Amino acid sequence: MSARAYVAEALGSALLLAVVVGSGIMAQQLAAGNVAVALLANALATGAGLLVLITLLAPLSGAHFNPAVSVVMCWRGELPRRRLLPYFGCQLLGALAGVWLAHAMFGLPLWQLSQHARHGWPQWLAEVVATAGLLLTILGGVRHAPQRLPLLVALYIVAAYWFTASTSFANPAVTLARSLTDTFAGIRPQDVAGFIAAQLLGAALGGGLGSWLFAAPAAQPDAARVYGATP
After folding, report:
1. For residues 61-73, b (16+ Cβ closer than 10 Å) or e, as one string?
2. Domain containing 15: what range?
3. Which residues form a coiled coil (predicted)?
4. In this structure, are residues 161 and 46 in contact, taking their beta carbons and an 8 Å threshold?
5. Would 60 be classed as within a structural domain?
6. Is residue 230, in this structure, part of any structural domain at all?
């Protein structure tokens, strides 16, 4: 079952980035310069993709697709420590493959470096908020509505595209991969470190607060299948 979990993390991360980058390219091509329309299309496509991917792959791996989520789940004892580094590798390699897949589908050069500037304390604060909110959504959903968790996460990400100044990357693997696409979804390589530091801080805040706020008096086996213990 470990092999299936690793493949699920890699595949899910790849398809997530293909959705994020591919829908951004398509949105930019069709929006005729209207950035609001392009962002709306990008957000809706990402949310729809997440809903499908989490629903299908959560029973196999927890559907983290995100090193920050994996760290929090490992800290909570819901992901075995021996799986943490392999999860990181699968998530990053999958994310990179998804970016290159999107480029290939649109006939763009596979290797690119983004020129999209995303820096400054408002952007970093936005990433802290976006990542903390994602962890609170996950932990609250596991506690109170495990069967609706894929929908909750998808809706949160769609909303966070719009209420955060950074458009809610909230994921170190996604951030690294998006530095290699000079398209609508990109981020300059020199801006990556600030985003990742903010995301890790947000994960610590959201994970700590969520673990206390949504503490359960007893184990909930059904909830463990999603964003929790893996087979």
Report:
1. bbbbbbbbbbbbb
2. 2-225
3. none
4. yes
5. yes
6. no
d(CA 195, CA 67) in angstroms, rounded, equals: 13
In this predicted model, what pLDDT tens digit does every residue of 108-151 receive, in sequence order?
A: 999 999 999 999 999 999 999 999 999 999 999 999 999 999 99
Tell me if 231 is assigned to some domain: no
Residue 101 domain-assigned (yes or no): yes
Which of 48, 69, 64 has the alpha carbon at shortest distance from 8? 64
Tokens 């969520």 sit at which residue?
210
Q: Which residue has the tokens 């990433």?
A: 127
What's the number of domains the chain is made of?
A: 1
Most confident range (mean pLDDT) of 140-144, 213-217, 219-223 is 140-144
Closest CA to 185 of 39, 61, 13, 29: 39
Look up tokens 């509505």; give the residue. Answer: 145
Q: What average pLDDT does range 168-179 have in this prediction?
A: 98
Closest residue by Cα to residue 69 from 93, 56, 55, 87: 87
Which of 132, 137, 139, 154 minimizes the C-alpha distance to 55?
154
